[in-house]
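Re: Re: C-alpha cell formats

Sure, here are both.
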Amino acid sequence: MNNECHQEKNLDPREVIREAYSEIAKQGNCCSSSSCCGNSSAELITSSLGYDQQELSQLPQGANMGLSCGNPVAIASLQPGEVVLDLGAGGGFDVFISAQKVGATGRVIGVDMTPDMVHKARHNVQSFRESSGLNNVEFRLGEIEHLPVENESIDVVISNCVINLSPDKPQVWREIARVLKPGGRVSVSDLALLKPLPNTVQESVRALVGCIAGAVLVDETEKMALSAGLVNIVLKTSSNYIDQLSSWSDPLYLEISQHLPSESNFSDYVTSLEVTARKPQIKQNYKINHFISTSTH
C-alpha cells in the first residue's frame, strides 16, 4: 500500500472514520470511497445479502449506500410494535427497512456519530413518510460507546458492519446491554477475524475504514457480549460475503489481499459474522452460548 495509507501513531481512529464516512454521505454511496463494502455497487451488495426487493423499493433515494456486510434485520425477526435501535445508522438504510416491519405502533431510532450522515438520514425521513405512510423513525447524533438512549428502553438492537469500527468495543457491548429492556435482543452483522491479520494490514487507514483493521477475533466478540451480561449468544460465521467481494474484483479487498501471505485467501482471515443474543429477564439466568459455522472453507 502507499505510504499515505498508513496510520500515524497519534491518529484518532474516530476522526479517521468520521471524516471518511462524512465524505461517503456527501458523495451518496460507498463506491466513491473506502468503506465496509469496498467499492462494489450498493445494489449488488444488498441483493447478495438477501434484502427484500419490495422493502427496498420503499426506501428514500440515497438511503442505500452499500455500507452493509450482512442483513441484521432479517435475523432480528422484528415484530409489530417493537422499539428498535440501529447502531451506526448511516443514511438510514436498516432503520427504514426496520420501520416497515415494526409498523405504525413500533419505533426505530438510528444513532450515528457522523453529522453529515445524520443530516442525510433526517433529510430522508419525509420521503419515507410519503412512500410508506409511516411516521415511526428518528435519528440521533452520538457515539455508539455512549448512546443517547435511555436505560432499558429498547426491544431490539441491530447493527450492520459498524461495531468493528469502534476503538472501544467492550464499551459498545455494555451500552447495548444498558439500553435493552429485560428480555430484549441483539442482532448484529459484522466482520470478524478467524486469525490475526498481518501488521501491514492492521496499520492501514484504508483497511480501518474498510472495517478490516478494526475487526477482532470471533471468540473476542463472544467474550465481550458475555462480559456485558448478555445470554443466549449465537455466533454464525460465513465466508460467502468475503468470497463474493473477491469474485467482484473489489479494489479495496484485492489491495489488502496483496499483503497476505502467498497462497492465502482473504476469507482465511476475515469472515462475515452474525451475532444474536438476549438480555436476561433475570440477571442470574445465564445459558451456555453456541457457535455455528457455515464457512465454505
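Second one below.
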Amino acid sequence: MQSLTRLIGLGFILLTLAAVALKAVVALPGPLGYAPVNLGLGPAGQPVEIVIWYGTEKKLWLEESVRRFEQSGATVNGRPISVTLVGLGSREIADRVARQEWGDDPQPTVVSPASSVWTEVLAADWATRNGGQIIVGDAPPLVLTPLVAVVWEERAAVLFPRGTDQFWQQLHDALENPEGWKAVAEANGFAPGTPEHDKALGWGFVKFGHTSPLTSNSGAQALILMSYGFYDKTSGLVSADILNKEYQAWIEQMESAVLDFGDSTGTFMTSMVQFGPSKYDLVLVYENLAIENIDAAQGRWGQPLRVFYPPATMFSDHPYAILGDPLTTPEERAAAERFRDFLLERPQQELALQFGFRPADPGVPVVTSSPDNPFNKYASYGVQVDIAEQVETPSGDTIATLLEFWRRQIGPIAARFEGGN
C-alpha cells in the first residue's frame, strides 16, 4: 500500500514538473497565459517586435524614448518588447500602408505621421483598396508642434523690418521680384550705401524652401497656409478657391522660387543647417525642428536662425495609430499599446519639451522655471509660447483639389529644376 502511495505521489510530482516545463515554452490559451518565469526557451524567450513608421521630425525624441522603454524591461505575456523605428515622410507612410508596399522596410505595427490628416487618409484609402478598417481604436496625439518660418538673422532684418503682419504678401513680393534681395532691401527702406543694402547685393535671389506637399505633411501645411494667405482668411477654404486663376498664378510665382522639394521635414531642416544661407534664406518647417537646430546653425554659420510665426498657422499632432488585422497579431498590438502608454506618461512628455515639442498632455506645462526649457532658452530667437491664431483644416475634398492642382501645375516645374528626376 505504501509502495502504491509513493508511486502515486511520484507520478503527481512528475506530472507537475512536466506541466511547468511545458508552460515555460508553450503559450497556453485562456486565463492561464504565459509562465511568470521566463526560462529563455521557446516563444516566451523571444521578444515581441513592434515596428513604428514615423515622421522623421520626432526622431531624437522617439529614439531616446525607445532607449528608456527597453531599459524599463517592459513585457507582454512575459515576453520582452523590442521597438524598431523607420523614419519616412508622412504622406508616404499613408500611401505605402494602404497599398501594402513595404519595400526594403519591415512591415509596420504602428504608424505615427506628423498629422492626423494622414491617418484619416490612410483609413479612407485602406477601406477603398482593401475593405474594412485598418486602424485599431483611437490614434491619440503624442506631441504637438506648429509650422513656422525659419530665416537667417541678416535676411530677416531686411525682409521683415516692421514685423510679419503681411507675412505671405511680403514673402510673395520678395520671391517674384527679378532683382532679388536688392529690390527687397530698397522696398523696405534700406537705401544704397546702408550696411543692409550692401549685404543684400551679394545675396542674389530670395531662396525659399519647403517640402513637397505630395509626400510631406509640412509641405501640405505650407500649401494650405499660402492658400489662406492669398485670400486673407483663416477658414472656409473650398475647392472653388483653388480653381481661381489669379490664385493659381500667385501660388506658381511663389513655388517657382523653391529650389527643391524634399520628402522629409527632418532631413530638409538638416540640409538648411548643413549648407547655410548660400542655399536657403527662409524655410517653412516645424517649430521643434527650428528649436532643435538653433545652436548648430549659429555655431556653423556665425549668425543665428530667427523663428517667425505666420499670422495664422497649423499644428501637427503626431498621432499614434496601431494597425490591425491582417497586418498585426494580438500580441503585437498589446505590445504597441504598452509603448503608447509609456510615451504618454509624464516623464516622456516632459522629455519631449527638451526636443522642442509641446506636450500632448495638457497637464504638462509648456513653460517651466528651468533655464533649459526651450521656450525660455530661445525666446530671444523668436520662439514663443502663445500662438495667435490657427487656420481651419480644409475638408478632404478641398485638400485633394489643392494637392491635385499642385501636382499638375507645380510638379512639372519642380521636375525641371531637379533635372527631370
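The chain has two domains: 43-142+318-359, 145-316+381-417. Residues 2-25 form the longest helix (24 residues).
- S.
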